[in-house]
């Protein structure tokens, strides 16, 4: 599968969503988008969409210096998962079909 023109807006949207999550200023966000648009001028349409999807993250990282914009979110949801894990473990352990219940949980 090759990258199509319809993939380009998704790459831009993905980058904008990353900017929102990271809390970057409007000025810095505009700089990231400007750099991204320049990079997209030379996108290799022969590559898969997955291969091209990291362009936005690369530009984001280069311009902002933020290595992992999702770091705080990942920590938050990992904590939530660890908080409910003991309860889910009890539910699975007490189930007749443990595998089914584990998949359902």
From TrEMBL:
In terms of InterPro entries, this protein maps to:
ARMT-1-like_metal-bd_sf, ARMT1-like_metal-bd
Q: Which Pfam families match?
A: ARMT1-like_dom
Residues forming the Damage-control phosphatase ARMT1-like metal-binding domain are: 5-102
Known Gene3D superfamilies for this protein?
Answer: Uncharacterised protein PF01937, DUF89, domain 2
Which residue ranges run through the membrane? Answer: none
Put simply, this protein is called Damage-control phosphatase ARMT1-like metal-binding domain-containing protein
């Amino acid at each position: 599968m090759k990258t199509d023109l319809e993939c380009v807006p998704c790459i831009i949207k993905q980058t904008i969503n990353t900017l929102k999550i990271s809390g970057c200023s409007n000025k810095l966000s505009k700089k990231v988008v400007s750099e991204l648009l320049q990079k997209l001028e030379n996108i290799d349409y022969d590559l898969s969409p997955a291969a091209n999807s990291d362009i936005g993250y690369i530009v984001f990282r280069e311009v902002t210096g933020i290595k992992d914009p999702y770091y705080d979110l990942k920590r938050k949801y990992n904590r939530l998962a660890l908080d409910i894990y003991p309860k889910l473990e009890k539910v699975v352990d007490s189930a007749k079909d443990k595998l089914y219940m584990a998949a359902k949980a």
